[in-house]
């Protein structure tokens, strides 16, 4: 690794002594419920509540990332990876939405 002459050098660190030390910096919060933001309902597009049988996978089959359910239960830094995937999915959905509807309809 160090033979690549990068801007940093790989090596051992004394920063982490135990697994708990590592977990403490992974973003895992002891009380996640206390950190949740309130749910906001967007009505800017006149969106109605989805029906009981609404399935995003069927509604937007062009979006591959919607079809996968990922287990995030034991990961402390997964928010980075999955926020990117959510951004990707939202980008696809936004593009599909623009193709189906025009701004003058709202």
UniProtKB/TrEMBL annotation:
Peptidase C1A papain C-terminal domain boundaries = 52-80
Q: What domain of life does the UniProt record list for this protein's source?
A: Eukaryota
Question: What's an example Gene Ontology biological process for this entry?
Answer: proteolysis
**UniProt xrefs under InterPro entries:** Papain-like_cys_pep_sf (IPR038765), Peptidase_C1A_C (IPR000668)
User: What GO terms are given for molecular function?
Assistant: cysteine-type peptidase activity
Name of the protein in question: Peptidase C1A papain C-terminal domain-containing protein
